[in-house]
Amino acid sequence: MKKICIYVIIVLMIFSMGCTNRKETKEKVKETNSTDMTYEINMKRDLLTLMMAYPEYIVDLEVSSDNRVYLIMKSGNKILYDDKEKKNYSAKLNNPDLQDMLEEIYPLCHTDEIMEKNFDPGRIRSYALLKEVYGNSKAHVEKNLVAAKGVRFNKNNRAAESMKNVMNELLPLAKNNGKIGACVYPMSGTFCYRVISGTGRLSPHSFGIAIDLARDNRDYWKWASKEAGAKRLKSYPQEIVNIFEKNYFIWGGKWNHFDILHFEYRPEFIIKSKYFSKGIKEGEMWYSNVNINDEYIKKSIDLIDKKIK
Ligand SMILES: [Zn+2]
């Protein structure tokens, strides 16, 4: 009983982050992770999140003899879940594993303030994963691009389909509402194979999974002060953000390194936020919030429980 209580308290502490612009202190999480049980719950939730977000691409899990956990991809390639290295913010950006990528929980609530220092859920990307799913070269990605209501988007993992769903709802709204229209048009682009300026990292636009809407000079952290960005954020129509998030896109307006015109198809962040942003109550399972009547989800939970013991 005592053990269960301690365990519940630890889990609640980790997941009790409400809807705020505050960064969930990763260092604190890492320290609290000294309990194996909490680490294991986090890991299982991350693995299920990824399997739900990339159902056709993750086919199995593997635990090596040195206890490292890998995703087995459709191609046969493996992606390491956690390299167990302690990293600062820039090391996470430049060399993230899946655990680093999913550490910050994307807030699904309305936000109109710039996020706390270095809180950028979704800005840390596992390129190994993106390359497996959307294409590992310019030519390969280009082959996967299709037209989605006037823009080019990657057809893999339902990205283009989600983009179409966004457009079906967003375009009529932009036509009838001047304020929304001004934030949507002229659009600034989707696919563009390039590195993020000033870095060696590929932009998510390189994979055909991101869209920039109408540009305002206050939209990007490198162009504008935090105060100017916050002003723009406060005036940004929430309807636009809601439509994208409903379709598994995250918004750069919820990053400390803000990118307000930028929306990116990252189903893992919406899924993790929806199902795993809260702690578990006594007696609940680690997967308590998901729909276990869904056959694929049930199968994934069984696989995770079988491999991770
Ligand atoms: Zn962008």
Bound molecules: zinc ion
Shape label:
globular
Q: What proportion of the residues is helical, as a percent range?
A: 40-55%
The total count of strands amounts to 8
Our measurement of the CA-to-CA distance between the termini, rounded to an integer number of angstroms, reads 21 Å
Largest sheet, order of strands side by side?
1-2-3
Strand/helix succession: HHHEEEHHHHEEHHEHHEEHH
Low-confidence stretches: 1-18, 24-34
Structural class: mainly alpha
The helix tally amounts to 13
Write a structural description.
The protein is mostly helical and 309 residues long. It has one domain. It is 42% helix and 10% strand. It contains 13 helices and eight strands. A three-stranded antiparallel β-sheet has the order 1-2-3. A three-stranded antiparallel β-sheet has the order 6-8-7, with helices on both faces. A hairpin with a 4-residue loop joins β2 and β3. α3 crosses α12, α3 packs antiparallel against α13 and α8 packs antiparallel against α11. The longest helix is centred in the N-terminal third of the chain and has 18 residues. The chain is globular, with a radius of gyration of 19 Å. The two termini are 21 Å apart. The N terminus is likely disordered. The site of zinc ion (ZN) has 5 residues, from β6.
SSE order and pairing:
Elements: H1 2-15, H2 26-32, H3 36-53, E1 58-63, E2 69-73, E3 78-80, H4 89-94, H5 98-101, H6 127-134, H7 138-143, E4 145-148, E5 151-154, H8 159-176, H9 178-184, E6 210-212, H10 226-235, H11 238-246, E7 249-251, E8 262-265, H12 267-276, H13 295-307
Antiparallel strand pairs: 1-2, 2-3, 4-5, 6-8, 7-8
Helix pairs in contact: 3-12, 3-13, 8-9, 8-11
Zinc ion is lined by residues 205, 210, 212, 259, 262.
